[in-house]
């Protein structure tokens, strides 16, 4: 009972203790950080300021306009990273009513925490290094979030950042042991400036020699620990810094770590040793037969490395005299003695201040491809030295070779490239018909390569991994055929490839050629003409275009694109100046040497050639004595066919025609209520624009006092290829655009002189005369006659001056009925002359006809029943008839009146 009484006050006291919240009250001109939320800014942005404003760099508040204005809540303000990341700095109070700024409300900053591990005694940086156990350490904290500690509600109970240390065993430390057995919690670290230390330097630092700390790697990570900054910035990849560090404590053994456990022969590799800083260790390599001769050498340690000491090849062998623990031989006796007395197979290494040192090993083509063991032992002179070893495998590597294709035209450039992991140099040679059997230089195929002589080979450009070489086939002096190209990692010919890496690829060389896409082309004057074709060899000079016609000569060159395709355009202006007729086109290819052997002079009057001397005249194409048209084309073909000219050619013809436009006659007639489509054919090129103008045929001077109204329509259309080989066109005039009349149609090409004209007739739509016939009923009802009905009205409709007139013709109607109360039919028919009445009359007569059919059917049935009755029933029927007799005269009298 007593214990319960004691607990109750304690519980009440606990509930009365105020909850310590993160500092959120921002003073005027205070600092806020990206990612903070729930801030109270009523001191920084007091009433009447309800917004904040941001000015661009160099602006003057109160004079310049703000770059951004943001309405804020004074009690719940969040510095959202995605909104403020590019607007850090001063934000001003803003009165939206007056549109004026106030004082600096607060300053937005990108938060930053960066950690380093420092030796407390020497203040040297041990980050990412090694510190012997027992070395006192401190964590240097560089941060800009000290502004949080200057807020009025900061309680100094917990700092705005958190530091955690991950141990080698996977645990997490929130504090460390200080000298004398004290404890320091990282949560008590309060940054007061840009730089601080945890634990403080005066506390003695982190006692790494405490027995609870094992040797190994310790990772140290910071976190933001205020106003949910860490959570809000976790998904933000912008500019904020949260950088940790790591340190290795007191390794008690010598360690080795290789950059790779598999290395290609010819490539270097590194081995990192770990040990006590400032104490020497010995490193050596073991493997192979021990001769060190060519093809049997282990990897060698690169000389003149920092922290690495080696014996001289001529002695004394101080380091080589070291005897590893438990061995009966020295280092000099363990490693091969060739070359350089074996001094590059071992070394003495001093770890740096972090207890690490990386040693580089080199391999070459003399290195044997096998597995090697690298040893470390030390410290040198220790009674019980530590030891470690790793294995590294040296492999041959490989060479790859690609060309992108397997067939090339003589004169074309071949790009050879690949990867060489066997060495930094790639040696090339070629074999084939009538070439040296061991291989010839790639750039001079008839010069044999010499095994082991690098200068006799063609060498590719290389960066010790990839290689590249461009081979121009026009100057090789090779005939068409199939050849084999070799890529080798050493200067080895075809018969010495067993100890090297190599690759081959076959290529086929073909003779150059020239072709065009069409042998005959027709084009109208003023249209653009494109000459296209393909060329083998991709000559740098391109292809030459020669055009001959009556009193016409043209010469130009066209470049050849990748793949051998070329095109040449004759502009509209050029075809406009060419008279209608046939023209000869000759396309010239320069062949393998890439040079034209025939060309015109500068004045385009004389065709020159390379034989019997360079620039010798061949024939004239201009001036007195010039060959014209077909004669000039024939002379050029004869010259190109000479055995002294290696150029090849192809020829074809083009035809220039006068532009013409035709109009389909049936398209020049239409009505006002349907679209009018004007169509026709033309020889103008497809996709050419055509202008069509439709004007009133009666267009002319307007008489004084007249309205001057007239109609017309114009527009453009585009030609398209038709099924018959010529181009076609279509032009649509919307329905109702043109009233009934006749119009002049003018059609002309936009880019050529072709024209056409015609007369368009627009009429009213044709309406057929409607003559409905209605049977006039002639009704007679008696005991012996079948009633009949006949009605014959005639309705005629026609259009006169755009007005529909309806004529209704009614023939006399006579109806015999036995009832006096029936409507006078004649009067009804007279009234039916009106269109509404006529419609009603038609409906009424239709119903009447249906009713009469029913009556007639009933009457006929009753008549049949009467004829089949017994005599006494007949007497009764006659009696009934006699009783009804007085009614008949009344019906007859009514009929006469009618």
How many separate helices? Answer: 10
Strand order of the largest sheet: 19-27-26-21-24-23
- Overall SS class: mainly beta
Low-confidence stretches: 1-20, 779-792, 794-826, 870-898
| Number of extended strands | 57
Main sheet properties? 6 strands, mixed
Radius of gyration: 55 Å
Percentage of residues in helical conformation: 10-25%
Termini, distance in Å? 130 Å
Strand fraction equals 35-45%
Instruction: Kindly report the average pLDDT value.
Output: 81
Shape: flat
Describe the 3D structure.
Helices cover 12% and strands 35% of the residues. It is mainly β and 898 residues long. The protein is flat. It is built from ten helices and 57 strands. The strands form 14 sheets. The chain has a six-stranded mixed sheet with strand order 19-27-26-21-24-23.
Task: Give me the secondary-structure topology.
Layout: H1 2-16, E1 30-33, E2 51-54, E3 68-71, H2 81-84, E4 89-95, E5 100-109, E6 112-119, E7 130-131, E8 136-143, E9 161-166, E10 172-173, E11 175-178, E12 182-185, E13 195-198, E14 206-207, E15 216-224, H3 229-233, E16 241-243, E17 245-249, E18 255-258, E19 262-264, E20 269-274, E21 281-286, E22 300-301, E23 308-309, H4 331-334, E24 346-349, E25 356-362, E26 371-378, E27 386-395, E28 407-409, E29 413-419, E30 427-431, E31 440-441, E32 458-459, E33 461-462, E34 466-472, E35 481-488, E36 502-510, E37 514-516, E38 520-524, E39 529-535, E40 543-549, E41 552-558, E42 565-570, H5 572-576, E43 581-589, E44 598-600, E45 606-609, E46 616-620, H6 629-640, E47 648-657, E48 669-671, E49 676-682, E50 689-696, E51 712-718, E52 720-721, E53 727-733, E54 741-749, E55 755-763, E56 793-800, E57 803-810, H7 825-831, H8 835-867, H9 871-883, H10 887-897
Parallel strand pairs: 1-5, 6-16, 7-17, 19-27, 28-36, 38-47, 48-55
Antiparallel strand pairs: 2-3, 2-4, 4-5, 6-8, 8-13, 8-14, 9-10, 9-15, 11-12, 15-17, 18-20, 20-25, 21-24, 21-26, 22-25, 23-24, 26-27, 29-34, 30-31, 30-32, 30-35, 33-34, 35-36, 37-39, 39-42, 40-41, 40-43, 43-47, 44-45, 45-46, 49-53, 50-51, 50-54, 52-53, 54-55, 56-57
